[in-house]
Design brief:
By secondary structure, the protein is of the alpha+beta class. The chain has 14 helices and six strands. The protein is about 55% helix and about 10% strand.
Length: about 375
């Protein structure tokens, strides 16, 4: 029922009031952030300047901040300055280039400082963590967890896409994620202290390692360093998970497991029935993998009616929903989600992995959204 707030001032009542309040609050925020931003920008400039002038220690701080800021997306603020703005170099054609990435590929022998430390962690460290989570899972769940972790580890090793692994423990075990951020800093410190140089076009995976190997300096040393990091990650993750009984994949309580097993199937069947699908078309029937995942996600999101819009990036489904409180996180994870992020009441993100575009396409086909 629409209520009047401003008496007889009809234009200011009912649904109009939300628009007016929103406009006023937006103007207020513009003033606040407009006044505060110069100070914030000066702080960022000072931080970037310190990082670039502090040698190996500065690169270590960058590595820690890069991982620590991923949950907020603010790591791109540091990346943009260091990768595309820091430093100057004149290439063979006489053109001035800027940024650690651009200078590396232009032939600057000093470039690669803020890229090289990612390789040991992304190619070796996080796959070691994935293996630890597999062995730490309950025996009855290891087959399922093993398939998931193997695909995530191979993806991280080959392409440097690590978010699917990171989101499996980022929110359920923040302490582990803090250790991961520190280890990234250690990797940055060690590789820069040894004077190793290597860059990437996409991310710090084996593909970029091989393609850019000849452009780097002492890049072969990243392999033994990476193997050491694989052992460190495995040992730390395995014993911390077991010691503190962290609920990493496959270690959920029985009530959580049963809920995750029951909810998706019920919702998937309801979703399929609404589309006129038969039992043979349901998961475990003739449906393909991506349709099964799509239907499972729809069920975990509270059904098709709760979905407003489907979008995706490299590894995530970016979804607009009517009510995020209807989301069942356990059901989503049982359907294959590596992680779930609730942005606000109407926006959620599901960490899927490199196959995300195929799942998104199926969700659009099913819902028309």
């Amino acid at each position: 029922m629409t209520k009047k707030i401003f008496g007889n001032q009809e234009f200011l009542d009912g649904k109009h009031v939300a628009i007016i309040i929103n406009a006023v609050l937006t103007l207020l925020l513009v003033v606040i952030f407009g006044a505060a931003w110069p100070t914030i920008q000066n702080g960022l400039d000072a931080l970037n300047g310190w990082i670039t002038s502090a040698g190996a220690f500065g690169s270590a701080i960058y590595g820690i901040l890069n991982r620590a800021l991923i949950p907020t997306g603010l790591h791109h603020v540091l990346n943009t300055y260091l990768w595309f703005g820091y430093g100057d170099f004149v290439d063979a054609a006489g053109q001035m280039v800027h940024g650690d990435i651009n200078r590396f590929f232009a032939g600057d022998p000093t470039a690669g400082t803020f890229q090289v430390g990612f390789f040991p962690v992304m190619m070796f460290g996080l796959p070691g963590a994935a293996f630890a989570m597999y062995l730490a899972a309950k025996k009855k769940n290891r087959a399922e967890v093993g398939g998931m972790m193997l695909s995530l580890a191979v993806t991280a090793f080959l392409t440097g896409i690590t978010e699917p692994i990171e989101f499996t423990f980022m929110f359920i075990a923040p302490f582990l994620y803090a250790i991961h951020a520190i280890l990234m800093g250690v990797s940055m410190f060690v590789t820069n202290l040894l004077g190793i140089k290597l860059g990437f076009t996409f991310s710090a995976g084996a593909i970029d390692f091989v393609l850019n190997f000849t452009k780097g300096h002492n890049a072969w040393q990243l392999i033994p360093i990476g193997l050491v990091f694989a052992v460190i990650y495995f040992v730390l993750f395995y014993f911390i998970i077991k010691k503190f009984n962290l609920k990493t994949p496959g270690r959920e309580d029985e009530t959580e497991e049963s809920l995750a097993m029951e909810m998706p199937n019920a919702e998937v069947q309801e979703s399929a029935a609404s589309l006129g699908a038969t039992e043979a078309d349901l998961p475990n029937g003739k449906v393909d993998k991506y349709e099964q995942m799509a239907r499972g996600y729809l069920g975990g999101l509270g059904g098709e009616d709760n979905l407003v819009k489907v979008d995706n990036c490299t590894t995530r489904l970016r979804l607009q929903v009517k009510d995020a409180d209807l989301m069942n996180e356990a059901a989503l994870k049982k359907s294959g989600a590596r992680g779930v992020v609730k942005i606000n009441k109407e926006n959620v993100q599901i960490i899927v992995g490199a196959d995300v575009e195929f799942v998104a396409d199926k969700m659009r086909d099913i819902t028309g959204k």
